């Protein structure tokens, strides 16, 4: 125990001596947490439309004004031909082209149905599909509003199913409540993972590890000496993050803060163990960093931070479950947004605990003082 | 019978079919300054790493300070000091902080550390630099400091791996004064070196060629045996036959 | 010139000695492409929903069967009260609840009006929105089919997917992944290679050699240029053969533009290496510092239009953003140089600026 105190003293001194790294550890995540969620917004507000109206009739005008007034779209141009309209898509100015064929009104009234050509820029995935579905909604709304239809409906009263919907925990369905806690976790993960991954390997590269290995320091003392300082820093970063969530985004955890901290502390241990594990396997800092980065990338993509895990194929869900970040993001979202209690998060906690034991155990096992 | 600090029998370290250390046997007495000579790549460092408990031998037996190198490495580590070829204090810690850390991990109490480090700084004349980063010190001072830290916890044996590489002659001289002082206080010194004049300062020396100990005796006896005037010549005669090229 | 080749060869040996880093460098694109291509989707599939049918008549059963038939949902039926729903949400097992009131059919027939209620777990707003949309569509559809008259007059939108007739989802991310990987790998490796020499003190040896400092930098950059180029080729091959992406435009133009972008990244790496003094700082800056901003400001994960204006300004100074536009135009839309000359000029300008600052700093250090 006494030896551990000396190790800790040394580690803390070294960390606090390097002001650049220290600043990076605290400032980078804080700034990113403030900035990133503003940028991460899936809400598609302005879908840009290029219109080609070959009909110039009352109905076509009505349809256009309906589209324009729906609030989803911005009509950026009115062109004479599809070819011209396509130019706007090629230049990335427009996302979709709506082409109203000539004889639109006449055919609609005579045949009761008329086709409308919609061309979407299908490379801009989210925008195209969301814009397309917005347009469908607007058009079916328009259909119901065509005066002849209204008269029909009134004549034959068939029932109307009124669909009401509500979003619990987040009535306005705002994306920030979802993404901010996720980003906080991600940043914490990066800091913890990268810093520890670099740490032991740095001693290896400089050669001081030899000097440590020839002392009677015990393996667990050494690993613990490396873990604790970064654990303290990680918890501090996490706390700063929670404050930022509150100050900038007005996100207050619904559930117990103590529970969040309990799980965060276990999670950090797991994560630092992961960093140390990489550190014990790597020969130099570049290698450690790249290996860490490789896994961080997988963690980030598979953790359900951006995309839903339920929608993944089975093999991917297995990988996702083997990712500690997945469980922590899930727990943080549950507690912060839904106020879930211990009962509801205990399975996830067990996962994280298992990660903590396995990763640290592995790191200690793989760290050899004698080889 | 005189107590032996290090006993080595047929000690071997094999990497694939390469014998880095090939059946070396020797004994080092307590309080002795034992020189370990050899060209680059002869296997000195590997042998020393085994004795320090940093590396497992492939076969043979060895004991250091009475502890077995296979099973009792941690006990060995408690009783030795080590100063490696690469400079191995923390450059981004101050002189005092380095002393405190290494003293601490060997279990020296804080009170003791304080007293001893005061004495140490005084002998080294480093009082003014005590709060300077080690990285800012000139190499010679660093090496002297590293040696002092290696024997700070009063080990039974200290291993020095080319401790005076790149150091000016005056500092080397001072360094050897420190070694003598340590030996006089009962610490066994096991030192590797490239400088043949330094070899003359040792009580006994061994010369390693291609993983084997080819000669072992006092400097005077060796010169006599090889009918040479200097150790340099002895070394040259032995090393000339080496098959391994220097790295 | 001969000296330069000798020097470049030495750098190559350096790079190839570290197999693990090399493995990661090529493993990154492979894994990313596989994950993006086969694991990640913005669509909602197999979302767990609970249906609480308090009516249990023919019509509710018909609607439930329709919902079951869709691939979006995994349906569980049970009678639930709000408390139980909330609990299920808290545990995160269920994403949405659909509640049919008692006397659903009767109300519909006699009163002409009835209600269904959808309660979604809004903590995941995107999924919630999508589920609500799907459910609403299914119910509306059912209603339209069952109502005797239907709508007499209807406009039917016919949607054409431009550039991507088959709806290959990979097209959305391939350009982004390319930009991201090249940006990060090139920048990080280059920056470290110079800082490492600084840290070890070998840089000084190089600088006192009769070598021009510019040549030192060139020699350092060439291996990474070659590697990045190989990396890029790998991504293109994977996209074509694994993800069935069709390269619509000129392959030569694609490679030329990519080489330009790689040089931009190398210049950025050199700049970082000049500004930092330890490998640790350089690595943290180029990997941790760059990953999220690149992902975001390139515009491939989140639409740039939605961002505050300041972010759109920032995205203009992110080289990856311009490269992303170029790749999209050339590779996926099959457009020629006349459409991307502006972007190309901007990238060239950035490269010259970055390289200029890097070289200037480098000389000052002398």
TrEMBL record, chain A:
Gene Ontology MF terms in the entry: ABC-type transporter activity
One Pfam family it belongs to: ABC2_membrane_3
Regions that span the bilayer: 21-40, 177-201, 228-252, 258-278, 290-309, 315-336, 348-365
The ABC transmembrane type-2 domain, residue ranges: 128-370
Keywords from the UniProt entry: Cell membrane, Membrane, Transmembrane, Transmembrane helix, Transport
Homology family: Belongs to the ABC-2 integral membrane protein family.
Organism: Pseudarcicella hirudinis
Compartments, as annotated in UniProt: Cell membrane
InterPro entries in the record: ABC-2_transporter_component, ABC2_TM, ABC2_TM_bact-type
Protein name (database record): ABC-2 type transport system permease protein
Membrane disposition: Multi-pass membrane protein
Cellular component terms (Gene Ontology): plasma membrane
UniProtKB/TrEMBL annotation, chain B:
InterPro entries in the cross-refs: AAA+_ATPase, ABC_transporter-like_ATP-bd, P-loop_NTPase
Keywords tagged on the record: ATP-binding, Nucleotide-binding
Molecular function terms, GO-annotated: ATP binding; ATP hydrolysis activity
ABC transporter domain residues: 6-235
Family matches, as SMART domains: AAA
Keyword Nucleus: no
PROSITE patterns from the UniProt entry: ABC_TRANSPORTER_2
Protein name: ABC-2 type transport system ATP-binding protein
Organism: Pseudarcicella hirudinis
Lineage: Bacteria, Pseudomonadati, Bacteroidota, Cytophagia, Cytophagales
TrEMBL record, chain C:
Principal place of residence: membrane
One term of GO molecular function: ABC-type transporter activity
Keywords: Cell membrane, Membrane, Transmembrane, Transmembrane helix, Transport
Keyword Membrane included in the entry's annotation: yes
Membrane topology type: Multi-pass membrane protein
Annotated localization: Cell membrane
A single Gene Ontology CC term: plasma membrane
Listed PROSITE patterns: ABC_TM2
Transmembrane segments: 21-40, 173-195, 215-243, 249-271, 283-303, 339-359
Domain ABC transmembrane type-2, chain residue ranges per copy: 132-365
Family: Belongs to the ABC-2 integral membrane protein family.
Name listed for the protein in its UniProt record: ABC-2 type transport system permease protein
Organism: Pseudarcicella hirudinis
């Amino acid at each position: 125990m006494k030896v551990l105190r000396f190790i800790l003293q040394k580690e803390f001194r070294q960390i606090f001596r390097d002001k650049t790294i220290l600043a990076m550890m605290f400032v980078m995540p804080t700034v990113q947490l403030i900035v990133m969620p503003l940028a991460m917004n899936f809400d598609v507000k302005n879908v840009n439309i290029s219109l080609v109206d070959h009909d110039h009739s009352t109905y076509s005008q009505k349809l256009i004004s309906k589209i324009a007034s729906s609030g989803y779209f911005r009509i950026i141009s009115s062109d004479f031909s599809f070819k011209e309209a396509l130019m706007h898509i090629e230049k990335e100015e427009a996302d979709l082209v709506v082409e109203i064929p000539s004889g639109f009104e006449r055919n609609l009234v005579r045949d009761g149905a008329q086709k409308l050509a919609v061309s979407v820029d299908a490379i801009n995935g989210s925008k195209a599909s969301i814009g397309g579905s917005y347009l469908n909604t607007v058009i079916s709304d328009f259909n119901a509003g065509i005066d002849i239809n209204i008269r029909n409906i009134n004549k034959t009263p068939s029932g109307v199913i009124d669909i009401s919907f509500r979003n619990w925990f987040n009535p306005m369905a705002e994306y920030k409540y979802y993404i901010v806690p996720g980003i906080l976790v991600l940043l914490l993960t990066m800091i913890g993972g990268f810093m520890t991954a670099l740490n032991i390997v740095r001693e290896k590269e400089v050669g001081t590890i030899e000097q440590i290995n020839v002392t009677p320091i015990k393996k667990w003392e050494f690993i613990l000496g490396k873990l604790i300082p970064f654990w303290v820093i990680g918890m501090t970063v996490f706390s700063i993050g929670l404050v930022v969530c509150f100050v900038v985004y007005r996100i207050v955890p619904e559930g117990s803060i103590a529970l969040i901290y309990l799980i965060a502390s276990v999670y950090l241990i797991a994560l630092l163990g992961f960093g140390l594990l990489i550190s014990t396997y790597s020969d130099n800092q570049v290698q450690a960093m790249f290996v860490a980065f490789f896994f961080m990338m997988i963690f980030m993509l598979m953790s359900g931070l951006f995309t839903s895990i339920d929608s993944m194929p089975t093999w991917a869900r297995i990988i996702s479950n083997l990712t500690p970040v997945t469980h922590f993001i899930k727990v943080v979202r549950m507690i912060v947004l839904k106020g879930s209690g211990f009962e509801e998060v205990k399975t996830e906690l067990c996962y994280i605990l298992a990660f903590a034991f396995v990763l640290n155990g592995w790191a200690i096992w793989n760290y050899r003082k004698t080889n | 019978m005189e107590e032996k600090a290090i006993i080595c029998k047929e000690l071997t370290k094999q990497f694939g079919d390469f014998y880095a250390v090939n059946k070396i046997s020797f004994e080092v007495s307590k309080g002795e300054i034992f020189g370990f000579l050899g060209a680059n790549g002869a296997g000195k460092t590997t042998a020393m790493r085994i004795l320090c408990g940093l590396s497992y031998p492939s076969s043979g037996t060895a004991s250091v300070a009475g502890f077995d190198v296979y099973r009792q490495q941690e006990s060995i580590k408690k009783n030795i000091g080590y100063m490696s070829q690469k400079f191995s204090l923390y450059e981004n810690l101050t002189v005092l902080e380095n002393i405190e850390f290494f003293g601490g991990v060997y279990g020296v109490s804080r009170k003791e550390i304080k007293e001893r480090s005061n004495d140490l700084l005084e002998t080294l004349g480093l009082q003014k630099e005590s709060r300077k980063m080690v990285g800012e010190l000139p190499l010679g001072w660093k090496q002297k400091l590293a040696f002092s830290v290696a024997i700070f916890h009063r080990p039974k044996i200290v291993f020095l791996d080319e401790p005076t590489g790149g150091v000016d002659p005056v500092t080397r001289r001072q360094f050897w004064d420190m070694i003598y002082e340590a030996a006089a206080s009962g610490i066994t010194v096991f030192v590797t070196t490239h400088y043949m004049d330094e070899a003359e300062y040792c009580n006994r020396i061994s010369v390693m060629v291609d993983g084997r100990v080819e000669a072992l005796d006092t400097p005077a006896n060796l010169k006599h045996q090889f009918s040479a005037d200097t150790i340099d010549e002895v070394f040259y005669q032995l090393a000339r036959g080496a098959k391994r090229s220097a790295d | 010139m001969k000296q330069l080749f000798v020097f470049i060869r030495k750098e190559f040996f350096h790079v190839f000695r570290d197999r693990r880093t090399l493995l990661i460098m090529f493993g990154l694109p492979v894994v990313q492409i596989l994950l993006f291509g086969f694991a990640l989707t913005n669509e909602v599939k197999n979302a767990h929903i609970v249906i609480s049918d308090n009516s249990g008549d023919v019509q509710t059963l018909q609607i439930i069967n329709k919902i079951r038939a869709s691939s979006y949902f995994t349906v569980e039926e049970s009678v639930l009260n709000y408390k139980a729903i909330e609990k299920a949400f808290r545990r995160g097992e269920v994403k949405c609840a659909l509640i049919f009131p008692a006397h659903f059919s009767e109300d519909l027939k006699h009163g002409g009006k009835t209600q269904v209620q959808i309660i979604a777990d809004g903590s995941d707003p995107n999924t919630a929105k999508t589920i609500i949309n799907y459910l609403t569509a299914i119910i509306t559809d059912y209603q339209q089919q069952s109502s005797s008259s239907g709508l007499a007059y209807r406009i039917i939108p016919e949607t054409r997917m431009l550039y991507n007739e088959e709806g290959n989802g990979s097209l959305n991310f391939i350009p982004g992944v390319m930009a991201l990987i090249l940006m990060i790998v090139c920048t990080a490796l280059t920056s470290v290679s110079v800082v490492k020499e600084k840290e070890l003190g070998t840089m000084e040896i190089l600088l006192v050699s009769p070598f021009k400092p510019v040549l030192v930098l060139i020699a350092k950059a060439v291996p990474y240029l070659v590697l990045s180029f190989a990396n890029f080729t790998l991504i293109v091959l994977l996209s074509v053969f694994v993800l069935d992406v069709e390269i619509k435009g000129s392959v030569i133009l694609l490679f030329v533009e990519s080489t330009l972008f790689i040089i931009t990244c190398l210049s950025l790496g050199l700049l970082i290496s000049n500004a930092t003094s330890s490998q640790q700082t350089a690595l943290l800056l180029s990997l941790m510092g760059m990953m999220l901003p690149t992902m975001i400001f390139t515009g491939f994960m989140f639409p740039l239009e939605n961002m505050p204006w300041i972010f759109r300004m920032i995205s203009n100074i992110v080289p990856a953003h311009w490269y992303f536009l170029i790749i999209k135009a050339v590779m996926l839309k099959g457009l020629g140089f006349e459409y991307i000359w502006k972007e190309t000029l901007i990238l060239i300008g950035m490269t010259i600026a970055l390289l200029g600052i890097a070289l200037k700093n480098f000389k000052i250090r002398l």
